[in-house]
Amino acid sequence: MTHDLVAVLHPLLTAEASAEAFASGGEPGDLEQAVWLRLLERLESDGPPPDPPGWLRKAVRAEVRRSRRTTRLERPYGGEPADDSGPGPEQHVLAAARYRALREAVRRLPGRCPRLIEALLSPRDLTYREIAGELGISQGSLGPERSRCLGCLRRLLTPEVAPRDARG
Questions:
Q1: Does residue 144 register a pLDDT over 90?
Q2: How many of the other CB atoms lie within 10 Å of CB of 117?
Q3: Which of 50, 71, 100, 159 sits between 20 and 30 A of 168, alpha carbons compared?
Q4: Tens-digit pLDDT profile for residues 105-127
Q5: pLDDT tens digits, residue range 21-78?
Q6: Using CA atoms, how far apart are residues 131 and 54, in angstroms rounded to an integer?
Q7: CA distance 99 to 97
Q8: pTM of the entire structure?
Q9: Among 22, 31, 27, 24, which residue's Cα sits nearest to residue 12?
Q10: How far apart are CA 44 and CA 17, in angstroms?
Q11: CA distances from 94 to 45, 84, 109 (A)
C-alpha cells in the first residue's frame, strides 16, 4: 500500500516542490524530503490520508511556511564565522602535556644543561653571546655544550616520544 501511495504521489510532489521551493528560498529536493518524512509520520500514526493529493498539496505549503519562518528567524553572522582551522582543544591539551614533559626533562639534566636549555627556550630569544654571558662560558664552547645537552635531553625523552613500531 505504501509503495503504491509513493508511486502515485511522487510526480505530484516533484511538481509541487519545484513550484513552491524557490519562492521560499529553499531547494526542491529538501522540500520533497520534508514532505516524504511528514507522510511517513502520518502513515505511522493515522494511516494514509483520505485524499492523498489534497493532503500532499497542504503538506507542501505547510513545509514552505515553516521554511519561511525559519529563514526569517535566522540571522547571518555580522562578520566571518569562527575560524575552526586552528588547533582545537585536544591539540592544546596535548601540546601542554608535551611542554610539561619537556620542562620536567630539562630540570633532570646534569650540570649546567638545565640553565642552558632554559636560556635557549627563553621567550626573550637570547643570542649566543647573551646566553654565554649569562652562563659564564665562552661563546665558542656554547655550541658543543648545547649539542651535549640536547643529546642528554633526547635520551631522557626517548621513552616518552619513542617512535611507533613500523607498520606492515
A1: yes
A2: 21
A3: 159
A4: 999 999 999 999 999 888 888 89
A5: 887 778 899 999 999 999 989 888 988 888 999 999 999 999 999 888 887 787 777 7
A6: 85
A7: 5
A8: 0.45
A9: 31
A10: 23
A11: 50, 18, 23
> Of the candidates 44, 37, 43, which has an alpha carbon nearest to the alpha carbon of residue 59?
37
Q: Which pairs count as long-range contacts for 130-139, CB under 8 Å and 24+ apart, including other chains?
A: 137/112
Cβ atoms within 10 Å of 151's Cβ, excluding its own: 11
Q: What are the DSSP E strand ranges found in the chain?
A: none
Residue range 3-30: average pLDDT?
86
C-beta separation of 146 from 116 below 8 A? yes
CA Rg value for the chain: 34
For residue 78, the model assigns a pLDDT of 73
DSSP letter string over 96-154? HHHHHHHHHHHHT--TTHHHHHHHHH-TT---HHHHHHHHTS-HHHHHHHHHHHHHHHH
Look-up of cell digits 646534569: 110
Q: Are 30 and 70 in contact (CB under 8 A)?
A: no
Supply 74's cell numbers. 535566522
CB atoms within 10 A of CB 60: 23
Query: What's the grid cell of residue 69?
Result: 519562518
> How many C-beta neighbours within 10 Å does residue 87 have?
11
